[in-house]
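Why should sequence recovery work at all? Because a backbone constrains its sequence more than one might expect. Tight turns favour small or flexible residues, buried strands favour hydrophobic ones, and helices have their own preferences. The token representation captures these environments compactly. In the example below, the structure is given first.
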């Protein structure tokens, strides 16, 4: 694998942990959700990492900011899908402690990264 700077970002490291949590929690969803909610939530979680990495690789601050915003939007999508999963009783809130910690931490880190870039533009 490439030794790239985004891998040193704490937001990226937490986002990877979020992906792992999402995959673990979605293993128990009903079969009929495998190509609907499970697929959607997993893709959104992966998108958080992917856009964070792509943003870090951009040279323009404006481009970096845009990819970090997309990453944060994907994170909000994961949060929404977790909420839907709770409503449908596919998940139990008391089992989501780590996942919620990662969601909150990555959201705060991405927001700070976006704010810092906004101040520089």
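From this structural description, the recovered sequence reads:
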């Amino acid at each position: 694998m490439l030794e790239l700077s985004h891998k040193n970002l704490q937001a990226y490291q937490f986002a990877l942990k979020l992906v792992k949590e999402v995959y673990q929690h979605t293993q128990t969803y009903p079969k009929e959700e495998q190509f609907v909610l499970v697929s959607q939530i997993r893709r959104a979680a992966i998108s958080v990492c992917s856009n964070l990495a792509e943003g870090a690789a951009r040279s323009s601050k404006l481009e970096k900011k845009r990819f970090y915003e997309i990453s944060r939007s994907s994170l909000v999508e994961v949060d929404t899908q977790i909420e839907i999963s709770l409503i449908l009783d596919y998940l139990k809130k008391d089992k989501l402690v780590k996942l919620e910690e990662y969601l909150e931490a990555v959201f705060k880190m991405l927001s700070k990264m976006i704010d810092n870039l906004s101040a520089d533009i």
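A few observations help interpret the result. The helical segments are 10-26, 37-57, 61-87, 97-120.
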